Amino acid sequence: MVLGFDPDYQLLPPQVREAHPRGAYGSDEEMKAACYREFLLAILESAGEEAVAVKMQIAYFEALGATGYRLYEDLVGPCRENGLLVIADVKRGDIGSTAEAYAQAHLEKAAVDAVTVNPYLGSDSLEPFLRRVREKGKGIFLLVKTSNPSSAEIQDLELASGGPLYARIAGLVNEWGRGTEGGRGYRSVGAVVGGTHPRDGAVLRAMMPGVPLLVPGYGAQGASARDLAGLFDKGGTGAVVNSSRAILYAHQKHEDLPWREAAQREANQMRVALWEVAKGG
Amino acid sequence: MVLGFDPDYQLLPPQVREAHPRGAYGSDEEMKAACYREFLLAILESAGEEAVAVKMQIAYFEALGATGYRLYEDLVGPCRENGLLVIADVKRGDIGSTAEAYAQAHLEKAAVDAVTVNPYLGSDSLEPFLRRVREKGKGIFLLVKTSNPSSAEIQDLELASGGPLYARIAGLVNEWGRGTEGGRGYRSVGAVVGGTHPRDGAVLRAMMPGVPLLVPGYGAQGASARDLAGLFDKGGTGAVVNSSRAILYAHQKHEDLPWREAAQREANQMRVALWEVAKGG
Q1: Of A170, A213, B26, B88, which has the fewest CB atoms closer than 10 Å, so is most exposed?
Q2: Structure pTM?
Q3: For residues B217 and B240, what is the distance between their CA atoms, to the nearest angstrom?
Q4: Annotated active-site residue in B91, B136, B138, B279
């Protein structure tokens, strides 16, 4: 399971907000960043035990400007020290030297293990990322089929050569990742496939053997554990499922528990449910 | 003309680098950010006179981490005080509440006038940006056909319904921007169309009347002023052409001039050349 860091001030446990009153900080952003820091480090210590990786959704950090960006960079170390891989969900995509700057920013300066990348600009936009896959053991996940309702508008467009656009992108992911196989036969060039499209997901799983899938959409976005069954391979591996809000804000569901325990309880239940599905149980 | 801020430490005038020795700063990033700040503010004062907008390529700022992100935010005010619009070239694209966080980060917190957006995730990923177009007078530019060589791999894919993918995206840009017309008949929902594809560009210009085009690829990327002729409408408007490196690093071409003047000279020559092409001269 991947633990998603999508911090949202309004949804934090009231205790966290109360511990950081606005008056104690120079700005709203500094106050919120202090809340996020305390909250996410505590979640890491509790629910992190159930996870293999943390996925940081950088948009929520950017929303606090440079102060939030600093927090994004600061959290990478603690996640790794807790034995978790760090995936920066940045969905960047740009050309030539600009792509190089993005790869440098996230895979080197922020030093995360993997990033998500938008493929719309084609292979030269990926080259700086792929170089760091080959030379520095980093990973990337290309957006193939996203979990949102309007993903169909563009990703499902039928091509003249047959099949939807997302299947063509899946084919390119197969090409781009050739030669990046690691110890367990999985590649370092993965794909983002939303858990909210069970049928398309199973097709994509079959189309991309050896390609690790990063699966959003579980929990708060509506996908159930059973919807995800087709995303795992026969050995029950090959997909990592992200959950952000359902874990981070589990205190709203488990009102009887302290918020750290609520998050851990929810993470544990999710891990067990996913395990059963992955194993075909 | 749009003045592109793509700061690259290696390409700065030697005088700027020498004025900020590494030892005077706490980190490499702080030293480079100090160089960029001095350099870009000087370019703004000189070459900025020839431009209508500044396009900040955020990747080069992110490459310096939080220190660079702070500089990105800090430069917006001076650009606007010089009478220029600020376009943040962020190419973001994500779903629901994440898209909301990006729109907040750039159109509100950083307070730029417009952003570039990647359309691969469909209309729900645009909604938070479109709301700020309608309610706050902001602008967006959707990636339609980018200037890089491998843009063809995905953007030119032929659809079963006829025509390439980028033309379909252009059709969506027409839909998404309906009702955002401003004083001169131009909409606040624009399109990014690379100047390196003259024939496709002219087709796209005709397909999207009233849609302002943001045109990269002029100068360093190989498009000449004549290549751009088809991107302007009959009145010689409707497109803003970006130039980054050719202006910023004009000191490498005009070795006889101080670097500020070299940038201004180059910017002036570009503006005149573009004006002649736009007017059909």
Answers
A1: B26
A2: 0.97
A3: 12
A4: B91
